[in-house]
């Protein structure tokens, strides 16, 4: 899997991702301590609001940013977003009011909503071979999991010798380092659209392509399943460990590490597994298993209380493994479902719609857990996840072919598309994606 790093351009971008993720991890720790300094016992409410602002920015601003930057050089977009994020991180240590946290976090996450989909859409243009691209997706998943494990440890070591304000300097370094690595990478030119589209069409094009493609509708349903179960892990693990088991922060780290370890095992296994199996045959069963596992844990906790500590760690590891089995291959589906010129729009649609799923799951995990108890929160999230898994099974047909035979009664005989794909009896066959000539997915037959 690591042989994909022999590609020099991808290697620089992967290092940019790792450095930026490390900076983001330090920011998470520093932001919590800053919130406590400013709000004391209300720090949890401050952080909850900040994370809600993050999700709103991701869902609402990413399509706007993609539409506004569609014709700009991708390197300029990526570097500009990193510079804005670094500037915000540089200002954070000097604020003295809660509202300033909200304002700066909104700006930072708006820049991230610009950077992330553009970055993700660049990778398949660099790695045209699907096997190499699959390895890159697994490496990306691995980088996220390692960041979750290592950044808190790095922050702890730094806090032993400096104040938490210096953690923001690490965040600045991460974003500046990312910008420099992007600057020296020879990025391919963005594929130009054949037509100049009005802003409104650019704003909605990615979502229209996404929702018109059956496998991407299935992906969205599975994303809801993944978000439902993992939201409980991210929001309530601290409650389970500290209040349920009565254990300390070290054991909280062990629990989160178990989830991350399961995710890493899945990421390392998927490239070889997907060589011989279709994405659907991995992702849909993983979604069903994750939803049923969440409901099973809920039923157990209603009747017998918490499982033993080793069983709990194994459960969290399985949750992490199934979560990664759903989310890691998603880039393959996006790459397959759009022409290069539309790729960033489709990646942006996935970015916004997936975070809309999290925007639903996070409050349910927190509010239901606090109001009705953790088993009830698991039950509600498990039902939502099961609805997503069933919907994915229905929306994403089994063994859907890449190539479809179809006709174009609406196109004149001299249309360039018909010249590129000569028809017999007014029908022809090619890999089908939604675009200007193919606005509706063909039905069977």
Automatic annotation (TrEMBL):
Residues 406-423 have a biased composition (Basic and acidic residues). Residues 406-425 are annotated as: Disordered. It is found in: Cell membrane. Keywords: Cell membrane, Membrane, Transmembrane, Transmembrane helix. GO terms for molecular function: transmembrane transporter activity. InterPro entries: MFS, MFS_trans_sf. This is Major Facilitator Superfamily protein. It comes from Actibacterium lipolyticum.
